[in-house]
Amino acid sequence: MTLTRKGAVLIGISALFVTPFSGSAQESDKKKDTIELDPVVLTQETKDSAKTTTSVIGSQTVERLHAATVPEILNILPGVDINGSARLQGQSINVMGFDDQEDVRVTIDGAQKDFEAYRQGTIFIEPELLKRAEVSKGAFDADHYGAFGGSVALETKSAEDMLEPGKTYGAMAKLKYASNGNELIKSLSAYGKSEELGVHVLGALTHRKNDDFVDGAGDNLFFSGAKVLSGHVKASLEREDHFVELSALSSFSDDVTPWASKRGSLPSPYNIRRYGREGAYRRMSVQRELRDSSASLKYRYSPDNPLIDLAAKVTWAQTLQKSERLDKTARPYTSQHGDRSETNYQTYGFDLRNMSSFEFDGADLDLSYGYQFSVVDRKHWSYYDRYKNDPDKNYGLFAPYYYPEGQQTVHSAWLEGAISLQNGLTITPGLRYDVIKTTGVPNLANDYNTPVIDGEKGDDYGTIWRHGISPSLSLDYEINENLSFFAGWAKKQRAPIFDEIYDTDSIRYRTSNELKSEWVDAKRVGFNFSAEDVFSSQDYLSGRALFYHNQVTDNIGRTRGDYILGDPSPTYTNKAGYNTAGVELELYYSHHNFFGAVTYAKGFGKMKGTPLSPTKASIGSIGVAPEKLGLMAGYKFPEQGVTLGWRGSFVGERHHEVEWMEGGAKAKGYSVHNLFVKVAPQDGRFKGVEFTAAIDNVFNKAYRPFFNGYYAKGTNLKASVAYKF
Length: 725
Known about the structure:
Blueprint: H1 5-18, E1 24-28, E2 33-37, E3 40-44, E4 55-57, H2 59-65, H3 70-74, E5 80-84, E6 91-95, E7 104-108, E8 111-113, E9 130-137, E10 150-156, H4 159-162, E11 169-178, E12 183-194, E13 199-210, E14 226-239, E15 242-258, H5 269-275, H6 277-282, E16 285-301, E17 310-325, E18 340-360, E19 363-383, E20 397-398, E21 406-421, E22 425-440, E23 464-478, E24 483-494, H7 498-502, E25 509-510, E26 518-532, E27 539-553, E28 556-558, E29 569-570, E30 572-574, E31 578-591, E32 594-608, E33 619-620, E34 628-637, E35 642-651, E36 670-679, E37 689-696, E38 716-724
Parallel strand pairs: 7-10, 25-29
Antiparallel strand pairs: 1-2, 2-3, 3-4, 4-9, 5-6, 7-8, 9-10, 11-12, 11-38, 12-13, 13-14, 14-15, 15-16, 16-17, 17-18, 18-19, 19-20, 19-21, 21-22, 22-23, 23-24, 24-26, 26-27, 27-31, 28-30, 31-32, 32-33, 32-34, 34-35, 35-36, 36-37, 37-38
């Protein structure tokens, strides 16, 4: 399917005015007015206009999607796309053209997750544990460091979410099956509460197993099979004005996968003839163990005092990946990967914040302010047996020159004030100050350390300090009870990470200690609207139109093509910058039992210079996804407890090539259709039983998503049954 530029824009715009979305629930408190829709929650926080474009995927949609990974869940949002293959360890996300790990901040119950490795995914959290996913696009939040693309806040289930009305304890058993890959998921959870003590407790365990996935052409995605065991504990205590919550989760897998889980190079025809197709892949693959864990402790003090709404949290997260080659007779993917390797990311965090509310004549002020501290620590080693007698290679034990060890510490103070005037205008200025300390670790192998000789610059793994002030300003004007206008501007920095500073990229290069911080100048403008009784009585219509523009300066990139052979040049340099821009449209409608949705996104991107040279004046395209139109329609039968529907995704063609990006060739557009049904009897002998089913890629379309090196899954029939008791 090819989506023409004009045609898609017209479809998206017309949908905002004439297309019928989903069953709604409304909730409000003293801080925000939130309208929840199925499948997406549009959050209009009238006292926090910086978050006016936040989208939330609720628990009903998480259950309905039957997703194998978190990126598959987020992919339903406009402006959010999967980056990688269908392998569970091979996916990250692209948000508005930003897809590096440091460009999209991911947290789980407040704990920041960090992981970046050669062609590996970045998000490994089990979807079965999740209650909701909140996506805030852009660099507009004053309480976030860096993250030019935005943030993804994932929240796990709690006892309160699982308990049936009127009950104080319970348990749930769930069984899921998916035909593509013969996937089987088993889940068991137990939960309870004590109103007298103010205690809620939940424990959950999930086991996921699948064989290799198959694409629409009937070909296997080799070594995409996986076995994952995940566990989760969450407990809270509430006493008067005090609330404490402890959350911890962990998952473990040990599977065969290519070195590059996102893609994996194809074996040569010679090796296929000699070893067979599976044997040839096996020579290029590893046994990979992955442990992904996090924990958070939160405290909130909310007395009946407008000056105090205090929150504090301490967090820890770890991703540990161990790899060992299956066939030692074959050369590794590169010698730097060696025969065995281990990557260990640990992130520690502390966050303290407060909100004070003031009333003036004709205006209200909600002043939020806080202090943040985080440490990202990466340790890595590789061992290559062929170097065991080479002292310059430290007898085979070293860190790859492009994957140095290091630590980055960020201290931050921030302030944001929402000034609400009686005329419906809310002005939210924000200010953030960051101090970033980055320290490297010298390579164990002398071959990868360029010494300082006769005053020439060599490798320097010493501490680098960067700091800066990041201002922001957001406006939210309530034109009437149905329509509001918003606009935002922010200028934010991201200091270079240890990869960029201490990468030596062979003996011709050296560490890049002179790097400056990247900066983004972000702008957005748009409308939020909602109304009841639009086309008939008791219907509900809600939507959003957004235009954004990001200008990145001093962007950090490799200096390939810009060094004089033999001279030690820095591996990374600050380049001329690039721009991204786009439009996003969303519409949600419900009328009695009918619900529907329309979303549309179109992005643009231009780079100053080229990926190979910051000095050239030519303009090259960057990794911005093509236009994407999403449609959804469904119907509910309340008496029978049945919901059914259809969801379609229509993606336009890519007209240009991006030579340095995975799957960067020109590509035709495509359409994918999905069906879903849910049966949850409200009474009778089957009350407490919930059955869901879905068919993804109904017509078995063979297509390759924009950021994927492989084709996507073919037709996939999915079903689950859950019972609460």
